[in-house]
Design brief:
This is Chitin-binding protein. InterPro entries: Cellulose/chitin-bd_N, GlcNAc_Chitin_IntDeg, Ig_E-set. Keywords: Signal. It holds the Pfam family LPMO_10. It comes from Actinomadura rubrobrunea. The chain is 13% helix and 31% strand. With 196 residues, it is α+β, with helices and mostly antiparallel strands. The protein has a single domain, classed as chitin-binding protein cbp21 (Coagulation Factor XIII, Chain A, domain 1), CATH 2.70.50.50. The longest helix has 19 residues. The protein is globular and about 35 Å long.
């Protein structure tokens, strides 16, 4: 290799390095109310979760749900195989937060890195869904029962949204979706609830 070519390669690498290290910090967060599967893993309430126990805030995948986003069966893990234990229904035995049909409920997030936000949306499973199967779009109501729009604003590190739960009975799953405004991603959190 000639000295001119070697110098050109070294210069290109040197110029490119600052660009790689200057990547923006991405948002991260998880739901604390109702307690998400990711948080149950972090707290040790559920075992054999893999690396999600150290990174409950990292369940990030493509946004655009339900038209786009993670594939059916991988929704709770945001389509990321590192978090696949979140998609395992564990025979419908994930710990569930007790709630009441139609009650006012406050949904809470802990954000470890806030980001410009489009919205927070909350979906719930349909009556008759099967809690022993991985989550699919067909198992969810087609529209969110609660949505909070942020218009690109950056939320604080602790975020709460209050809304009325749908009229349901028995076990259900709530999918919380945090849509990021300035990236192509969203954060997904699945929380098991029991309406009794």
């Amino acid at each position: 290799m000639s000295r001119k070519v070697s110098f050109a390669v070294a210069a290109a690498v040197a110029v490119g390095l600052p660009l790689v290290s200057a990547a923006p910090a991405y948002a991260h967060g998880y739901t604390t109310s109702p307690v998400s599967r990711a948080l149950h893993c972090k707290q040790g309430t559920v075992q054999n979760c893999g690396p999600i126990q150290w990174e409950p805030q990292s369940v990030e995948g493509p946004k655009g749900f339900p038209a786009a986003g993670p594939a059916d069966g991988t929704i709770c893990a945001a389509g990321d195989s590192r978090w696949a234990p979140l998609d395992d229904p564990r025979g419908g035995q994930w710990p569930a937060t007790r709630v009441q049909s139609g009650q006012s409920f406050t949904f809470s997030w802990t954000l470890t890195a806030a980001h410009a936000t489009t919205s927070f949306r909350y979906f719930i499973t349909r009556d008759g869904w099967n809690p022993s199967q991985p989550l699919t779009r067909a198992a969810l109501e087609s529209t969110p029962f609660l949505q909070q729009d942020y218009g690109g604003q950056r939320p604080p590190s602790t975020v709460s949204h209050t809304g009325r739960l749908p009229n349901k009975s028995g076990r259900h799953l709530i999918l919380a979706v945090w849509d990021i405004a300035d990236t192509g991603n969203a954060f997904y959190q699945c929380a098991d609830v029991d309406f009794g």
